[in-house]
């Protein structure tokens, strides 16, 4: 059966700005179609539909419950404030809707587990909407980093995600409101930084997480800017990240191995949606008298047939279709990726709240793919 036959039917719950991008991605994906959008009122969802030139065939609902009760909806994309995720995500899964959830997934891992347990119980697919994982550039970068001959062992990682919020943003956006998205910049931009570091380390949790002094809060005690260090004892690998609402736009990743280095400046949103690049160097040495280098960085260009957000929808829809047709079970890979990101995010927040003390992460992998037990405790020191 062709991929574009019987496409997965999407509903969008919430008319956040990011929903504009994802609604376009659904329309671009060959195996998905948008059939419903819901907001808390009909006027709001109608304004969204007009602004985004939504097809007249798409159903518009004035409540989230109406969309979830629609039996023709296979999957929902949910760009709601983080504080609302548990309620509506659990309700969606109980209605049999597959769940594409905007990041950060939850305010803490306990809330994440409540949602994912509901997904498992109702046999629905879970994925968070971190689009960069789905770009073919990401696959190529992983291929090079994983090549021990040309890259060696990963020793250091740095990631940053930041942008300068306007005065209106810093006063009114939901990401700076403690009752809506209390994690602030750590949950929004920090989610990407932590995600890319763990991606580099094959989703292995660090041994120690330490927030670095210099956190900036607003008057409501929501984080506007912070940074942290992660350390893996066995690999002797260190990572740092910086996330912020109050500095210039950055989306950087730098990975240093024993034999090579990789740099990318736009890992979250590529400069061009049709093609993306990164810099890669292997075997670099200084020439005689240290007046230059023996090699220059190689610019690796990776084209893509679809924007990364459409590739995300395509992959999610492929998984959902396999479940619908009885050919496969929900793939827990994406929940694992979200959960370890959530665990490290929790540890950073814990470290900040405890005066920048180191957090020792003790974890145990039991049956299946899920991380069953994770304990966090403060430590008086951080040793590298």
Automatic annotation (TrEMBL):
InterPro entries named among the record's database cross-references: Gfo/Idh/MocA-like_OxRdtase_N, GFO_IDH_MocA-like_dom, NAD(P)-bd_dom_sf
The UniProt record lists the keyword Oxidoreductase: yes
Enzyme Commission number: 1.1.1.179
Classification via Pfam families: GFO_IDH_MocA, GFO_IDH_MocA_C3
GFO/IDH/MocA-like oxidoreductase domain location: 140-262
Taxonomy, superkingdom: Eukaryota
Keyword entries, A-Z: Oxidoreductase
GO terms assigned for molecular function: D-xylose 1-dehydrogenase (NADP+) activity; nucleotide binding
Domain Gfo/Idh/MocA-like oxidoreductase N-terminal: 8-127
Group of enzyme by EC: oxidoreductase
PANTHER family referenced in this protein's UniProt entry, alphabetically: GFO_IDH_MOCA-LIKE OXIDOREDUCTASE N-TERMINAL DOMAIN-CONTAINING PROTEIN, PTHR46368
Family classification: Belongs to the Gfo/Idh/MocA family.
This protein's name: Dimeric dihydrodiol dehydrogenase
Organism of origin: Handroanthus impetiginosus
């Amino acid at each position: 059966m062709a991929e574009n036959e019987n496409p997965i039917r999407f509903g969008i719950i919430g008319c956040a700005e990011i929903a504009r991008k994802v609604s376009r991605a659904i329309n671009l994906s060959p195996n998905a179609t948008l059939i419903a959008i819901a907001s808390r009122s009909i006027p709001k969802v109608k304004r969204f539909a007009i602004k985004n030139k939504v097809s007249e065939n798409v159903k518009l609902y004035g409540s989230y419950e109406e969309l979830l009760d629609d039996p023709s909806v296979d999957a929902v994309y949910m760009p709601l404030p983080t504080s609302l995720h548990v309620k509506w995500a659990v309700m969606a899964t109980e209605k049999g809707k597959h769940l594409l959830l905007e990041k950060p997934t939850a305010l803490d891992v306990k809330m994440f587990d409540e949602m994912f347990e509901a997904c498992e119980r109702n046999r629905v697919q879970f994925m968070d909407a971190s689009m960069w994982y789905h770009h073919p550039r990401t696959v190529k970068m992983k291929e090079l980093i994983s090549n021990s001959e040309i890259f060696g062992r990963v020793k250091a990682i740095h990631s940053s995600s930041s942008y300068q919020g306007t005065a209106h943003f810093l006063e009114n956006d939901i990401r700076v409101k403690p009752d809506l998205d209390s994690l602030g910049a750590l949950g929004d931009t920090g989610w990407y930084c932590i995600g890319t570091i763990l991606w580099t380390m094959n989703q292995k949790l660090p041994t120690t997480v330490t927030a670095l002094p210099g956190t900036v809060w607003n008057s409501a005690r929501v984080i506007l800017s912070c940074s942290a260090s992660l350390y893996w004892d066995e690999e002797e690998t260190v990572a740092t990240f910086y996330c912020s609402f109050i500095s210039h736009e950055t989306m950087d990743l730098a990975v240093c191995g024993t034999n090579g280095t990789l740099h990318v400046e736009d890992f979250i949103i590529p400069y061009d949606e049709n093609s993306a690049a990164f810099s890669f160097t292997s075997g670099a040495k200084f020439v005689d008298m240290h007046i230059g280098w023996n090699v220059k960085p190689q610019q690796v260009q990776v084209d893509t047939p679809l924007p990364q957000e459409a590739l995300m929808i395509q992959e999610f829809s492929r998984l959902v279709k396999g479940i619908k047709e009885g050919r496969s079970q929900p793939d827990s890979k994406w929940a694992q990726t979200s959960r370890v990101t959530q665990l490290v995010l929790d540890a950073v927040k814990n470290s900040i709240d405890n005066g920048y003390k180191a957090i020792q992460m003790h974890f145990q992998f039991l049956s299946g793919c899920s991380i069953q037990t994770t304990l966090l405790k403060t430590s008086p020191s951080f040793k590298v």
